[in-house]
Amino acid sequence: MSTLRVLPCLAFASCTTGVPGGAADVVTVARQDPIDWIPTWTPLTPAAGPDARGEAPLAGDAASKQLVLFGSLGKGAALSDTWLWAGSSWTQATPSLGPAPRGAHALAHDTVCQAVVLSGGGDETGNVFQDTWLWDGASWMTPQVPGPTGRSHAAAAFGEKRGQLVLFGGRGPGPGGTVLGDTCLWNGSGWTQATASTAPSPRWGATMAYDPTNVSVVLFGGAGGGTGNDPDTWVWGGTGWTRATPTVSPPRCGQTPRSHSTPDSARCCCSEGAWGRAMRTSGPASWETRGPGTGWTGERWGSSLRDCPVRGSPTRQMARG
Questions:
Q1: Closest by alpha carbon to 126, among 99, 104, 154, 156?
Q2: More confident residue, 173 or 311
Q3: Which residue has the higher pLDDT, 263 or 80?
């Protein structure tokens, strides 16, 4: 049975809350049963890789069997570079065309049109984008179609069975940008705005992943407009939202972690988020674990990711505050 995993660290720029410039680490994770365990971290040593940065989403490209990283917020300025992770090494792509520098964009792989979809994002000035870009494994292109309103920190995941990329919420322009609560759908060629009688409250920085077993997209957490973090779980079934009521949920956290589904024997990466207290890593390090954190079975959450890459040791206990 496939289980969604939520990892309270970044796949890249792990745990950037309160850490200017982020970190230069990458985390790859693999499936392991049961869903409750303490993982073991192993440092990797790629020869080169992206500079330190934060707000750096990752998306898996199933066709090329690579992870795609674009841009993000670096040390004081938004970036516009494209990097590919092939399991043991980074390669910088050099496309002739690409999105403007940005971070906190939505990034997900559309397995139907075989492209990584990038939507929105923001830069260091508070400007947000409303464009859409597609990465085909070698180059970026932008379809000339209207997109969701400009935003950063939206949650996105692709529902393979229905051929539908779901994007929810985010923040509008400026340091106090409006927190959004709309649902937008990408069908491979254009966007539509869904109408649902019941939906999650407006939020940004939520985590979202596809649950292949239950053929649904699962959303967890996020930060509301001045109401703190939302530790609730919602399920998108293709036409509407249903709030799940698990007996146990991951705790409230700073910026919630991003997650990806993990089919049998497949690797996944989880990105962007930190439990309560910020952590910091240093140097161009990479880490690998065989136990990818909190899992969603379709009915309940399991935990217990307790160790995370931090300065000096992968087995140092991480405080939750």
A1: 104
A2: 173
A3: 80
CA 72 to chain centroid, in Å, comes to 12
Tokens of 265: 């024997």
The mean-pLDDT minimum among 2-16, 91-105, 147-161, 244-258 falls in 2-16
Give the torsion through C-alpha atoms of 60, 66, 70, 73, to 10 deg: 80
What sign does the CA torsion over 243, 157, 266, 189 have? Answer: positive
Q: Are 80 and 88 in contact (CB under 8 A)?
A: no
In the predicted structure, residue 107 carries a pLDDT above the cut 80: yes
Cα–Cα distances (Å) from 255 to 61, 91, 145, 185, 277, in that order, read 25, 28, 31, 24, 10
Tokens of 227: 């109401």
Q: How far apart are CA 312 and CA 296, in angstroms?
A: 31
**Count of beta carbons in the 10 Å neighbourhood of residue 172:** 17
- Copy the structure tokens of residue 128: 């947000």
Judge contact between 228 and 205, C-beta under 8 A.
no
For 18, 199, 242, 277, the CA distances from 224, given in Å and listed in that order, are 19, 13, 18, 19
Reported as a pLDDT band with limits 50, 70 and 90, residue 299 is low
Query: pLDDT tier at 54 (50, 70, 90 boundaries)?
Result: confident
68 within 8 A of 58, measured Cβ to Cβ: yes
The tokens for 98 are: 């690409």
- Second CATH level (architecture) for the domain 3-302: 6 Propeller (2.120)
Look up residue 201 and give its amino acid. S
Quote the CA–CA distance of 300 and 318 in Å, as a whole number: 24
CA distance 252 to 95: 39
pLDDT score recorded for residue 321? 28
Strand partners, 79: 72
d(CA 3, CA 297): 5
Give the helix/strand (H/E) hosting 138.
Answer: none
Whole-number Å distance between alpha carbons of 7 and 220:
12
| pTM, to two decimals | 0.75
